[in-house]
Give the backbone structure.
Amino acid sequence: MGDKFQLRCYSYLDRMQPQYAAFVGTVTQGDLPTEGMAALYIEVAPGNEVFRLVDIAVKATEARPGAQVVEREFGMFEVHSHSQAEVLEAGRIVLDRLELKIADRVKPEIASVQVITNIDPYQAQLLNRFRRGSMLVPGETLLVVECAPAAYINYAFNEAEKGASIKLIHVSSVGRFGRMWLSGSEAEIITARNAAVKAIDELEGVKGK
């Protein structure tokens, strides 16, 4: 690949959690995923490369494409399957074609973490205007996590849902930063925060440019 190519995200989800899978179903324009499926998110620069990479992945495996997004700077796509092996094979084939390894991906970083207790009714209403997940209820504790590259936020939420009883409010995974909003009791939000931050911190990669 050229010097300007960047594998910004390579993020494998071994098992999509119930809320996360349901949320993805509300925003995806491709094949609808369901709970328990494995998924792979790949983000690259320049963005137009995703068209070729999706074609490679779906022709060579039974993994189905759920997202294919290109914006000003980056491109991102997602594939999923009930078979973890098929998803992993899709990733392997894409990396082989790019002549790259997983270790060549950009290492994600947490940009900000906010825990807001006892959400005010007016703040809840503002957030509920754009959410595609559950309603934020006044009095709940809200967690907002921001990371870069953006597509890793999907992995962060999926891991948070594994370890805590929380509600998914919204996830945004396109652009320079990914963000997730989730709510629950203060104790569960702290557990979810720790799980999300740990998941991001443990991913290996190279320093982003």
Q: What stands out?
A: The domain at 6-104 is CATH 3.30.70.1710 (Alpha-Beta Plaits).
